[in-house]
Amino acid sequence: MGSPASDASSIPAVRVTNGRALASLLVVQLLFGAMPVVGKLAIAAFGASGVAFLRMAGGMIAFQTLRAVLRLPGIPLRDQPAVALCAVLGVSANQLLFLNGLSRTSATHAALLTTSIPVLTMLVAAILGRERLHARRVLGIVVALAGVLTLILGKDPTGKSTHIGDLLIFGNATVYAAYLVLSRDLLSRHAPLSVLAWLFTWGLLTALPFTGLPTLEGHTTEGWLAVTFIVLGPTIASYWLNLYALRSVPASVVALFIYLQPPIAAAMAIPLLDERPTARLGVSALLTFAGVWLATRPKKIGSVRGEG
After folding, report:
1. CA–CA separation, 176 and 181 (whole Å)
2. Domain span at residue 282?
3. Structural domains of the chain, count
4. How far, CA to CA in Å, does 148 sit from each of 40, 118, 121, 152, 222?
5. Using only C-alpha atoms, what is the Rg of the chain?
6. What are the pLDDT digits (tens) for 214-240?
7. 299: phi then psi, degrees, rounded to nearest 5
8. How many CB atoms neighbour CB 129 within 10 A?
């Protein structure tokens, strides 16, 4: 899963005002960049569905506990159907698609495909009538999707097929984009941490028929360390840090930070998973990055300043 705050469909002028928030964003990208690589190790131990269950269960316990400790209000019954729908898109389907896709493709492919989330969010918002697309954004979406198709439809020189896995990862990015658009109303009316707590609760409940209860015995220390990192890092810490960063960092800056995920994943995948970059991956990266930049670039770019 891409960054939970990668919705860049409304772009203000770039203006950096909080060094701590930017540091938080950097940590988030490091954690999400590591996710595909560590996810491979966790999947080898627990299977894709098992990792999905443990990630959602860990998130639910952590966020519901934080909500209770901070005495935040719950979500009223009238809004629970909307929360459940967003949970299916942003948690259960999102994580099941990502982890099952990751088990069938490379970590570097997965990291690159998640960078399409900002342009997919714009596309979903336009389809639902939430915003208009101007010519540059349309061009950016087309270029980025061309990069995605280059990766999904191209032939791997090793002869190993990654098509199904790449499609599942792209499906993950698509449902997450829909979640970002549909969750705005909930986040505007309720405390973000309360929304997260119930998103993970509904996410676990709706995913349970597909995951079942994983076997917790007989796993290696490496497997347990990997799944613990996924729960504490790309799940709990990343969501929490994103909520902090978004209070003072524009969406345009958040969107730019997503570019860091593929290089981080590649840097880890080469020594740990013996993955090697290919020409197809490079062409896809150039097209995808160019498309995301075109679509998310502000019309007027203000000065970039760093303070405190």
Report:
1. 9
2. 19-296
3. 1
4. 21, 13, 15, 6, 32
5. 19
6. 888 778 889 999 999 999 999 889 877
7. -65, -40
8. 7
Residue 11 lies in a domain: no
Answer whether 0.70 is exceeded by the pTM. yes
Q: Under a CB-based contact definition with an 8 Å cutoff, are residues 55 and 236 in contact? A: no
Is residue 307 in some structural domain?
no
Contact 148, 37 (CB under 8 A): no
Whether 85 maps to a domain, the answer reads yes
Burial class (CB in 10 A: 0-12, 13-18, 19+), 149: middle
Q: Extract the tokens encoding 57.
A: 């269960």
Give 10-residue mean pLDDT values along the chain (308 residues).
Answer: 43 50 86 93 93 94 94 92 95 95 92 89 88 86 90 70 90 92 87 91 95 83 93 88 69 71 89 84 90 76 36
Report helix angle 80-87 to 192-211, nearest 10.
60
- In three-state secondary structure terms, 301 is coil
Q: Are 239 and 6 in contact (CB under 8 A)?
A: no
CA-CA-CA-CA torsion for 273, 279, 281, 285, nearest 10 degrees?
130
Selection from 211, 228, 210 nearest residue 219 by Cα: 228
> Does some domain include residue 123?
yes
Dist CA 230 CA 40 (whole Å): 11
**Alpha helices, H only, 128-257:** 135-153, 163-182, 184-189, 192-211, 221-230, 238-245, 251-257
The confidence score (pLDDT) of residue 277 equals 80
pLDDT digits (tens, 9 = 90+) for 69-116: 999 988 999 999 999 999 999 999 999 999 999 999 999 999 999 988
- Positive or negative, the Cα torsion across 294, 115, 276, 106? negative
